[in-house]
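re: that chain from earlier
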Amino acid sequence: MTPPRKPAELHRFGFLGPRGTFTQMALDAWDGAADREQVPFGSVDGALAALRSGDIDAAMVPIENSVEGGVSATLDALATGDPLVVIGEVLVPITFVLCARPGTPIRDIRAVGTHSHAWAQVRGWMAANLPDAVYVPTLSTAASASMLAEPGEVMFDAGVCAPVAAADAGLVVLADDIGDNQAAVTRFVLVARPGTLPDPTGADKTTVVLFQRTDHSGGLLELLEQFAVRGVNLTRLESRPTGSAMGSYCFSIDFEGHVEDARVGETLMGLQRVCAEVRFLGSYPRADGIPSEMRVGTADADFHDASAWLGRLRS
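^ sequence. v structure.
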């Protein structure tokens, strides 16, 4: 199946469901996605597997939270399997509510269901207001609301989710804005099969996964030097186990710039020389629109002038 070549040719979008998740809110914020087919999946792995098989054209998945850090399911799924690329990102402010079936008083709450990342962001509120309530994990925040909306018994009395999920499920909101960090934001990425890269905008980001040849003293420094000497600023750096052996890690990295920028191209070539594998996961516009700041000597013209100078020496 030929992959879509441009973002405008994407018509069938997957997302971490069910409907009413923060992931769907991120997808609705993507230009044009709200008017096209949206397919919910029960897990990040499920959404990306459908993308790889060609069942959908793109998938919106969470990758990073300002409180909890990287989303391991997404990081690991992108680091393995058939190549995929990120073509854009969306930032969503996170607001949680505590919801329950109509007629349930807050004093009767003994167990609360939600996604693990959400629970981590409301632990302080829970400790202060429902100290005896136990946590029950669900596949997503919206799943906790949809489970409560179904007739019959469930393993929890209340859910933590987005306000829209509680409203869609017909539940009663027992408490608003229960997050411990009012500035919490989750970053979502739109992932597609490899095709034409988004054009550089001057405010771009590139994502890679780096695999070392061997675990040795100064190994990480060797990788980071490839960025530093070319004036490339990192925006995220995380280590993830490769699964091959205890102590074997790869590095998932976001950095400023586009693959068509000279400094980024030079960095990628340097990494390719020193790494066992460089998995390129795309260059795409930054959601915040902040342009990259370039140090003196790191603009495209500087690299081109240096190359021309070397050419003159060799001739």
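The chain has three domains: 10-94+182-194, 97-175, 196-306.
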